[in-house]
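Re-run requested by the PI after the first attempt was lost when the workstation crashed. Everything re-entered from the original request form. Ligand of interest: magnesium ion.
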Amino acid sequence: MHMSGQTAFTGAAKTGPTLISLKDVVVDFATRDRVVRAVDGISLDMPEGGFTALVGPSGCGKSTVLNMVAGLLKPSAGSVTFEGRPVDGPNTRVGYMTQKDTLLPWRTVEDNVGIAFELRCRRSERGDKAARVAEMIERVGLKGFEKHFPSELSGGMRKRAALARMLIYKPSTLLLDEPFGALDAQLRLIMQKELLELVDASGMTVVLVTHDLEEAVSLADKVVVFTSRPGRIRAVRDIPIPRPRDPATLRFTDAFRDHCAALWDELRDEVAAAMATPHA
Ligand SMILES: Nc1ncnc2c1ncn2[C@@H]1O[C@H](COP(=O)(O)OP(=O)(O)O)[C@@H](O)[C@H]1O
Ligand SMILES: [Mg+2]
């Protein structure tokens, strides 16, 4: 475990070139009567092909970090770069799954997944639409449910549809904000395993926000613990557990438990600190 400081954290189990880099990032939000510092001096490098999990108490700036990588928010100070260039405007290389799956309730599964073609894909690609939609729906295990509306699906199926809608853009990087938070424990394990298979097969880079330490250790090769607000980096831990991994059985191994215990040692104080201060 390295402790936080002014240096950027590197040295994950995966050692590709740096894809995403945050340097001395500060984010201030102006509210009606004051300025809230959400993020306070974060430096973090994420390698291409790496799987990084961000954990920390609610309100510590995790979603804010994803928003900056996605290009939806600019830092107040410091820099956020992607492939060596400052993120300036919406980052079309990333697929972003926000905490709420925002499927359009009046559209079927296939029309939700196909919306990419209306919004973002080049006109010349539109001819492939039906085939690409079918391929993505099959890839996430929703074949047979193309004509269903979101209200006719279970929570897990809605998450799958949201995943398919994100993957159709063929993103090189996934930003996932508490993707399985609302699912029951068993379903979460199944979805985690499917995500790992997908990511391992494609070599995508992933940044996952989760409040669930076990989820972070199961999936990631680097776990970053944030302090309570304003968010700083408290600790970074590499998780050199070999892949492929099965989250359902991994949990019973000593290595898994050791990683969780060490991370909880760091997180515990921050959760307590976050509870002691009124949440903005
Ligand atoms: N648009 C905004 N305007 C004002 N305050 C915000 C805004 N977005 C986030 N915040 C505040 O910044 C802090 C960090 O938010 P967020 O990144 O959503 O935390 P997390 O995802 O870790 O729970 C919180 O205190 C939140 O209230
Ligand atoms: Mg959040």
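Saved to the shared folder this time. Residues 26 and 77 are 5 Å apart (CA to CA).
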